[in-house]
Amino acid sequence: MGVEGIGARVARKEDKRFLTGKGRYTDDMTVPGMKYAVFVRSPHAHARITGLEKTAAAAMPGVIDVLDGQQLLADGIGNLICGWMIHSRDGSPMKMGAWRPLANKTVRYVGDAVAIVVADSVAAARDAAEAVVVDYEPLPVVTDPVKALEAGQPQIHPEAPGNLIFDWELGDAAAADQAIAGAAHVTEMKIFNNRLSPNPMEPRSTLGIYDPGDDHYTCYTTSQNPHLARLVMSAFYNVAPENKLRVVAPDVGGGFGSKIYIYPEEIVCLWASKRTGVPVKWTSDRTEAFLTDAHGRDHVSTVKMAFDGNSRITALKVDTIANLGAYMSLFSSAVPTYLYATLLSGQYDIPAIHANVRTVYTNTAPVDAYRGAGRPEATYLLERTMETAARELGISPAELRRINFIRSFPHQTPVIMNYDAGDYDASLNAAMAAADWDGFAARKAEAEQRGMKRGIGMSCYIEACGIAPSAAVGSLGAGVGLWESAEVRVNAVGTIEVMTGSHSHGQGHETTFAQLVADRLGVPIDSVNIVHGDTDKVQMGMGTYGSRSGAVGMSAIVKALDKVEAKAKKIAAHLMEADENDVVVENGELKVAGTDRSVPWSQVALAAYTAHNLPAGMEPGLKEGAFYDPANFTFPAGCYICEVEVDPETGQTKIVQFVAADDFGNIINPMIVEGQVHGGLAQGIGQALLEGVHYDPESGQLLTASYMDYAMPRADDLPSFNVSTSNTPCPNNPLGIKGCGEAGAIGSPPALINAITDAIGHNTLTMPATPQKVWAVANAAN
Amino acid sequence: MYQTNYHRASSVQEAVEMMSNVPEGKYLAGGMTLIPTMKQRLAAPSDLVDLRHITEMRGIMVDGRSVRIGAATTHEEVATSVEIRAVCPALCGLASHIGDPHVRHMGTIGGSIANNDPAADYPAAVLALDATIVTDRREITADDFFTGLFETALEDGEIITAIRFDAPATAAYQKFANPASRYAMTGVFVARRDNGEVRLAVTGAGSNGVFRHRGLEAALAANWSPDAVANVTVDASDLLSDLHASAAYRANLVRVMAKRAVAAA
């Protein structure tokens, strides 16, 4: 490793512009003639639209036009779709209800878009939006996913009788039932996974520009995957054919999954730009973000875990109801199925697993992937159950896990996944040592003296990243392939541009991807530019989510670099009159191995473009592209330990220490990995302790629509994290990378709840473990 | 925000005159509640009359144990006042935990009291310190001033110019913050006079805003010790219940915060 190569703690190249206010986000984009949009949104959670009067609004000062759902329909703009087909266990396809970008007949959640106002200023658009009169006939509302499946509840979509979208299963029910019937012990739990709002720092924004001269559209948008946005808007929403639509996702201030999806606003602003003849920009305010950004989680599950007389798990049976909200968002169906039930084996050798998942419509915001996406739900369920089982069986939580760890690889689980590498004892041991697990009893006794209840809890998580082998996900219902692309363009002076289909919205790709190039070619990272986020600049790519940019995106760059290096060696060999097999790349030079003959990288690049003296028949230039389709998922894993003190008088939980011992395979930049873990832990701790989306069950109004009521983690809610990594390299990609973006959010919630329930001596506690809840549970226990 | 007209007053008299000449005016102090409310279009005053630049409304005077705080004094000025700290450090501590540094440099004591947010900190102090609210036309005792949620005894156009109180022998404030907003979910300010009289005011918990808890006051007057609150019943039926805290939980917090305030005093 060089000072700038793989494994180096290189300071982030992009931070200069972010920290000095020079980032360029969608809302910073300004084009001549641009006007501003405000959406008219439903104040009802469920209602029929019986009339829409906009004449007065359209006549207000500064208003250019007010456009509604009837006009959108008349212009042939299509429904929003879910791109992953799931079949119910009876073989029937999922029941997808129509999602109009502007509702024209029925609104199904508070915030559902009904009309768009385009005006000279945001203020004028807002004034006019208030003057649009929509007549609603309110309909009964259901927000709770369990209740939504009961008889006599409001019917939300005609396409989905009883609000059931699909009733899916994975695994062997008979084998699981048989093992449970014959078990020495069965641990049963009911598990709630609370609904979360994603809260990226930058709210969603879009700028639609229609150019009548070329009949061409440009869409600036807050997207994690601009090419996918272009594909979906072209192929399904009938906005414009791909060659007439450019999508640009410039600097994006965080996504956490919520910016994967194409939302109504992007489509409507593009369409409105053509209808009005002006570029149309919309930026969400924070309350709109709470109302309309796709939420995460929201599962209700029951679980049975069976053990033999030696505390070995013999079966796991899970029944989950997942709330998908009012409409099926782009990947919503995949999250509680193939991103969830496939991880239910955890780090354990479980012979029989069966999961039944029912997804339901409710009058709430759409639910889709949020940092971890399915894997936090699986981990929380499994690790809460393991901890509970350890308490019931009277053995230490570490010992129960050790008894059941998978130790031989590859390991085929009963739920599709084939784990390629791992060492779960290593992370468990590292975490326990770092947390001074053995000294806990003394610390607990000391805390007792101060009237505080101290508890400790662990969580051994596994996740599947590097999403994903295209043929495999295609066979499971995915509408797209999940490969990645790269193009390495060496300039005539030897500097390098890398076009990547990955998209950075905080991950630091401009640094880590440049480190890879620097490591391979021995050039300084300042001579490497990473280009992403613009469909006019970058070849088709699949974007960033599911911790895939390292394992998949960088693997594509490796493949392209292989080709560049091969050609450069041929040129260098020709220039030095040597055999190309003897040429090596070292410190920015191409050398004949074992000699002092070399040519600098820049000279090879120049030779490629002057083309005065190239090997016979060689094309000029030095630019190569590659597509990489992964052979398998990757499987990051680790052990998290949380220690808390609970104030029994108030129920307030203080996290005394938090230890994370992760195995991410090989690491490109340890500093960035630590940052990812810190951020993930903050979000996981947020879920466990503070965050929760609440709707009024009667009216369907969102009660947590601002930071006055939605509790985000702050610095003083968090301890100083103790993080470390061990490494079993991933055997299935060229860099041995597993991915680290989601681990913190996946592994931390169960560790925290296990610690609190240990402290208060009562196991019935749901997330978020607010002071009120902990106080109530602790006092009920006494 | 809807359009509004801004006026800057340089004297109390000028502010009153300005207000009398506009249709739907609002006085603007720190604006820490009013401006966000206007931005959300929940308030739409035709005119704002800014009181922050009126010299006679600013500043802190301590004479012996007598304290006078100009209504336009910021939380930061109170938090860092050496003079107040010498006679009533509990008030400095309270001010230093309002909102965040931005809020503390903009928000004012007069604005906070006039707004009477049921979760604001200052009303508890003003009530427990038996303070007098001085306006442009009269003086109002704290017991008469706070009349309900966001309701006070102020008349239309009346301006708070100062807060006066005699520093107690000892006092303390304990706040349990709402995990989301960090406003007081329950805050207790307790003050004890040399003659043994105890006043204890609760903010953040009452369904009718800030209130004195006579049962706790009596128990503490009889026995000034944290243990004295143990057997006092706090009736949950008069307390707020919301997403974050039930009335029963708030009743518990009133007792716990009272106990801790006495211990800290």
From TrEMBL, chain A:
<keyword id="KW-0560">Oxidoreductase</keyword>
<dbReference type="GO" id="GO:0043885">
    <property type="term" value="F:anaerobic carbon-monoxide dehydrogenase activity"/>
</dbReference>
<dbReference type="InterPro" id="IPR008274">
    <property type="entry name" value="AldOxase/xan_DH_MoCoBD1"/>
</dbReference>
<dbReference type="InterPro" id="IPR036856">
    <property type="entry name" value="Ald_Oxase/Xan_DH_a/b_sf"/>
</dbReference>
<keyword id="KW-0500">Molybdenum</keyword>
<dbReference type="Pfam" id="PF01315">
    <property type="entry name" value="Ald_Xan_dh_C"/>
</dbReference>
<dbReference type="InterPro" id="IPR037165">
    <property type="entry name" value="AldOxase/xan_DH_Mopterin-bd_sf"/>
</dbReference>
<dbReference type="InterPro" id="IPR046867">
    <property type="entry name" value="AldOxase/xan_DH_MoCoBD2"/>
</dbReference>
<feature type="domain" description="Aldehyde oxidase/xanthine dehydrogenase a/b hammerhead">
    <location>
        <begin position="20"/>
        <end position="140"/>
    </location>
</feature>
<dbReference type="InterPro" id="IPR016208">
    <property type="entry name" value="Ald_Oxase/xanthine_DH-like"/>
</dbReference>
<dbReference type="InterPro" id="IPR000674">
    <property type="entry name" value="Ald_Oxase/Xan_DH_a/b"/>
</dbReference>
<dbReference type="Pfam" id="PF02738">
    <property type="entry name" value="MoCoBD_1"/>
</dbReference>
<dbReference type="Pfam" id="PF20256">
    <property type="entry name" value="MoCoBD_2"/>
</dbReference>
<protein>
    <submittedName>
        <fullName>Carbon-monoxide dehydrogenase large subunit</fullName>
        <ecNumber>1.2.7.4</ecNumber>
    </submittedName>
</protein>
UniProtKB/TrEMBL annotation, chain B:
<keyword id="KW-0274">FAD</keyword>
<feature type="domain" description="FAD-binding PCMH-type">
    <location>
        <begin position="1"/>
        <end position="170"/>
    </location>
</feature>
<dbReference type="InterPro" id="IPR036318">
    <property type="entry name" value="FAD-bd_PCMH-like_sf"/>
</dbReference>
<dbReference type="InterPro" id="IPR051312">
    <property type="entry name" value="Diverse_Substr_Oxidored"/>
</dbReference>
<dbReference type="InterPro" id="IPR016167">
    <property type="entry name" value="FAD-bd_PCMH_sub1"/>
</dbReference>
<dbReference type="GO" id="GO:0043885">
    <property type="term" value="F:anaerobic carbon-monoxide dehydrogenase activity"/>
</dbReference>
<dbReference type="InterPro" id="IPR036683">
    <property type="entry name" value="CO_DH_flav_C_dom_sf"/>
</dbReference>
<keyword id="KW-0285">Flavoprotein</keyword>
<dbReference type="InterPro" id="IPR005107">
    <property type="entry name" value="CO_DH_flav_C"/>
</dbReference>
<dbReference type="InterPro" id="IPR016169">
    <property type="entry name" value="FAD-bd_PCMH_sub2"/>
</dbReference>
<dbReference type="Pfam" id="PF00941">
    <property type="entry name" value="FAD_binding_5"/>
</dbReference>
<keyword id="KW-0560">Oxidoreductase</keyword>
<dbReference type="InterPro" id="IPR002346">
    <property type="entry name" value="Mopterin_DH_FAD-bd"/>
</dbReference>
<dbReference type="InterPro" id="IPR016166">
    <property type="entry name" value="FAD-bd_PCMH"/>
</dbReference>
<protein>
    <submittedName>
        <fullName>Carbon-monoxide dehydrogenase medium subunit</fullName>
        <ecNumber>1.2.7.4</ecNumber>
    </submittedName>
</protein>
